[in-house]
User: What shape does this take?
Amino acid sequence: MSAPTSDQGDSNGSHLASTPSSNGHPSVEDNAQSLLFLESLYEQYLKSPDSLSPEWREYFAELDRQSEVSSEVRVRPPRKPFSIFNPPSMSEGGLRRPQRLEVAGRQERLDQLIRNYRVRGHILSEVDPLGKKRGNPPELKPEFYGFTEDDMDRRFSTSWMGGPEVRTLRQIVQWLRTTYCRSIGVQYMHIDSLRVREWLQTRMETTGNRIKLRREEQVRILKRLSNAVLFEQFVQKKFIGEKSFSLEGAESLIPLLDMAIEKAGNDGTKEVVIGMAHRGRLNVLANILHKSYRQIFREFVDADPELHIGRGDVKYHLGYSSDWLTEQGKNVHLSLCFNPSHLEYINPVALGRMRAKMDRFRDFKHKNGLVVLIHGDAAFIGEGVVQETLNLSELPGYSVGGTLHVVVNNQIGFTTTREQARSSTYATDIAKMLQIPIFHVNGEDPEAVAQVVNLALEFRKTFHRDVVIDMYCFRKHGHNESDEPEFTQPVMYRDIKQHRTVFESYFEQLIRMRGITREEGEHIVEQRRQVLEKELEAAKRDQYIRCLEDYGGYWYGFRGGSVSEADEVDSHLSPDELSRIMNVLTDYPEGFQPHRKLIRLLEQRREMGNGQRPFDWAAAELLAFGSVISEGYPLRMTGQDIERGTFSQRHAVLHDVQDGNLHSPLKQLAAADGLVELHNSPLSEVGVLGFEYGYSLDCPEGLIIWEAQFGDFCNSAQVVIDQFIASTEDKWERLSGLVMMLPHGFEGQGPEHSSARLERFLMLAAEDNIQIVNLTTPAQHFHCLRRQAIRKWKKPLVMMTPKSLLRHPECVSPIEEFTKGTFQPVLDDDSIEDKKSVTRILLCSGKIYYDLVAAREVQKRPDVAIVRLEELYPLPYVKLQQVFARYPAGTEVRWVQEEPENMGASRFLKAHFGQSFFDEYPFRSIERHASASPATGSKKSHQLEQASLMEAAFAKY
Assistant: This one.
């Protein structure tokens, strides 16, 4: 039976070390748990007396005799507080004899001791391979609970621990130390669920937290250690001074991953996505992903520089994929994600990739994939993206069925010690925000590593939650192989220099256990050395053929490259299809009651679909979504409050005002197995954007969208934008069709809610790597989204989306613009029929167009044309030149923007066109003065600035 106090009190067990009484021992004053414990034991005695120890049988038999009890339990609470060390006399019908309460008290104290081992035993665990001790908590000592040496051979009931039902106190303490204080320390008592805690207790306490390995399993571990150690030694010897960020000191990571993939594969996992930083990556590539040694060595030699001019990344940042066949014949596909030096930012990307894979195969229960994230200790506690990723773990829109987190705990950052790196006890304490266990393990004990891998994956399989393995090890070299660590950690590295490799220590252990002979071990080593030598020779040959990767698998038929290779697509709809889609989007089930204000909105949208009312921005967007869904393209959109829309414009998900039930009209347009996902995200930018970028890598045919609540919020995700999205093709040789919707426009809401930082994206724009648009009509928005979904040329799309234009009476599009035509990167001024009469062209994009049109009307300037540059990148040179050619040569062009001069597109256009467009049209710009902040915080100042812009745009000078 379960320990009666295991689910009480706070998670650190402090209530068990009760307030000491006058004799220095803990008391149980007002502790009803001791009485509950007695009642439960008495019920057990009535059912099966032999299941209890002789002392307890004698106790209850005497109680029955003295009180003449029937089958009813007579244990009653005392009338006043008492100490188990000084029990009072009890009233009639209660406990009569002090010695019997002393027996109960001993059992109660033992239960407190057991629970504190479960809570704090990890502090005594020997997880540091360098032997550093971490304290000896008094609550883990029997004497803290009043036990003496005379009690050590006293027998107690331990049926709830598993194993023997009766043990001496000495045996109990030894078993607790074996389970919780050897090479494995476990934190799990912070978990609220009694079921989960008991599940873990059973599997640890019945086995002593050790796994019994067969000889062939031990030999396999030894081989993996041999491969890991020899690879690092070989690289150090053959490529002296080259950075490799070696795994030396943490080689147990290789058998850990080997065992994890084997177990997961045998349990039905078909896909494993791995995210990790640079330390140990080459070893993982070689010995887990099985990237050929010769290819890795060729990269060290750097013999093909002409293939990488201006592109690619260093060898220890690159990704790879391969197939793994388990010993039971199960196939597993492995994907190691590429990763920049920005630690931990790959985490949400890896999760997004796995979610896309699961959705593709309709694995909605998330059973067939595994994400393994390999962290460094300093980064795990130090980088905020870790917390964001952990928070995604069990949210419906982001869950992948649990991630295996492996912390390669080098016990040091670059040169920073634990005392300077964190305020918490462990680097993994951030993971206690989740209801999951954390296993600390000594990386120098491979069989302890095997135990935690097995237990961690069993936990994940059972509860579909994340799980953490904190593998303590060390870093043999400095931050890189040319760094001198003894400058800053002389004592630590003196110990490291004297330390044997984990392969050597485990080899000796197996020899002592007669699990292997010395000759067998030496043969394993020699075989691997010969393989490495042969592969290096092959890498140096001139006839070496480099393995080139092409876009295959899901990406077959898609392409990147120059915009000249982009396919033109037909994005309009037939009138009947448009009407059908809008009817579905404005319908809801019988009995469903939307908010009364939305009923009118839905009626208006139905009128738009019937041609009775022009389309506004939100309706055009939903029409685009509905049309791509109807044509079989997956749709996934996430972001803060995207279901309703930040500006209460979208209403893609309806809420019943009576019962709160939801209705998503878009889902009614999908086929039976169609993918339509609309998720309000947590208050996170970098984590969610990284996730969606990862999703887009494995869903080329989908329309994958992340929307910022306000455009400037993408500031928080700048690393994802710079290191992944903008450089996805150039650096990582991968394509992405991710869409970023960033609300943009200067409307007097202050500097934080005006600019989506258009200039930053334009600075990142090169080699046709991304698309940047700032659109002016609902129809343009519709066609742009459909083009992104339909065409095979895939690039990330950055959309400067509007705010006030969502309800601007002039920002509408007639139905004909949806049933004809396609996206236009440049929009000419169709209001001017006689182009030859134009004396000035105002070139602009986005919201300011409507301000300029209104100002032209007021100033009565029919000689001024207003041309819209809808697509800022790739710059539509040909389209723009064609439009300008309609106007007289020499006509002045003024670029007008809301942003300050050092922001927006002003400097970008000047860099590309100089002082004139196409050497025929003089060019100048109209903007706010250069500023350190995007906008004023004063509404009236904003209005004054806007008026000045309009005046300057139409001024005659």
Q: What stands out?
A: Residues 836 and 887 are 6 Å apart (CA to CA). The radius of gyration is 35 Å. The chain is about 35% helix and 15% strand. The longest strand covers residues 892-900.
